[in-house]
Write a structure and sequence with these properties.
The chain is about 40% helix and about 20% strand. It is of the alpha/beta class. It has a single domain, classed as UDP-N-acetylmuramoyl-L-alanine:D-glutamate ligase.
Length: about 325
């Protein structure tokens, strides 16, 4: 029997504000380049005021939200559980999520009072991304945001690793994973960022627990989590934690373990201008592939090509027509 959703995702709800800056901006404002840094509202307000931001630079985001939208763009069905407030950014978030074909627990009349989280994504001419995130109300994400009945109607649960920073979110992650495993829903997890694996190692190991069906990570995260010193050691160690996994390797493509063999996914050469969202796109496109009859190798190709397209433009999303063009390019008769 076919399920209602390909993937049910849980993660932070953040309004992404993408801006281009020069390296000097980081020096002037004491921003640590290349990292995701959690900041308070005053600090983020200070940075936002220091730059000119146009509304078209805003999108509903958060790592897993970007992946669910990517899956939707390729033709998949997704549900996203998250938390926003009743402010204008929360209303914007709900509208943008729905316009991208993603079902959600959010409704305009039940949003709590508070401040919707925002992620200031600063990209530099070398295509590196630097994020300053004020979580706002999403830091209170918890069990009440879950819709367990809808989760049971999915082929996959997709868990965003960024949630490990919040104790209430960790409880929600555990309940979602337990519910999935009891209802024949496969569990996919992304480590999200090296800092999550490094500074929240205990929480991340707790979530991985008895293992997951599918893990997404990059090379640095794989080595940090397994305590290894190179990719070959890390990929062997990951077999103890995930039945299948995808390790993204930046400009060198990706490595997929399909449960039996390792598959090298070739990169697509592009002129990268913004790496923001590349990992999210990879996960969303890969999940589309494996829930729509494609092999892990084919899903890896879809994900690799989609990621190359997204880093060659600003922002974490493709245009809708680009997703269809990718599938036509790879699988036309």
């Amino acid at each position: 029997m076919s399920k209602k959703y390909d993937v049910y995702g849980i993660g932070n709800a953040l309004v992404d504000i993408v801006v281009e800056v020069e390296d000097q901006f980081f020096e002037d404002h004491k921003v640590e380049k290349g990292l995701m840094t959690l900041v308070d509202e005053d600090r983020q307000h200070q940075l936002v005021n220091a730059m000119h931001i146009e509304e078209e630079r805003m999108q509903c985001g958060g790592s897993a939200a970007n992946s669910m939208i990517a899956l939707s763009q390729f033709g998949g069905s997704s549900y996203y559980s998250c938390r926003v407030s009743d402010d204008r950014f929360g209303q914007f978030y709900l509208k943008d999520l729905k316009s991208n074909g993603v079902d959600t627990n959010l409704t305009s009349d039940t949003a709590p009072t508070g401040i919707t989280g925002k992620c200031l994504v600063m990209t530099t001419p070398d295509a590196e991304r630097t994020m300053n995130t004020f979580l706002g109300i999403t830091s209170d994400f918890g069990i009440s945001e879950l819709n367990l009945e809808e989760l049971k109607q999915a082929n996959y649960l997709y868990i965003e690793g960024y949630l490990v920073t919040s104790p209430t979110a960790v409880e929600a992650m555990k309940l979602a994973k337990k519910t999935a495993q009891e209802n024949d829903v496969k569990v996919a997890l992304t480590f999200s960022d090296p800092s999550m694996v490094k500074y929240f190692a205990d929480q991340m190991k707790d979530i991985v627990g008895n293992g997951v069906d599918l893990l997404f990570c990059n090379e640095e995260e794989a080595m940090l989590f397994t305590g290894t010193h190179n990719l070959l050691e890390a990929r062997e160690a990951l077999k103890q934690h995930a039945k299948r996994f995808a390790i993204t390797l930046g400009a060198n493509g990706a490595m997929i373990f399909d449960g039996d063999t390792f598959i090298d996914i070739e990169p697509y050469k592009v002129n990268a201008v913004d790496t923001n969202g590349a990992g999210d796109m990879f996960s969303g496109a890969f999940l589309y592939g494996i829930t729509h009859g494609h092999s892990h190798a084919e899903a890896g190709k879809i994900a690799s090509l989609a990621s190359s397209k997204v880093v060659s433009k600003f922002g974490p999303r493709l245009e809708w027509h680009q997703a269809k063009e990718i599938l036509n390019h790879l699988f036309e008769d």
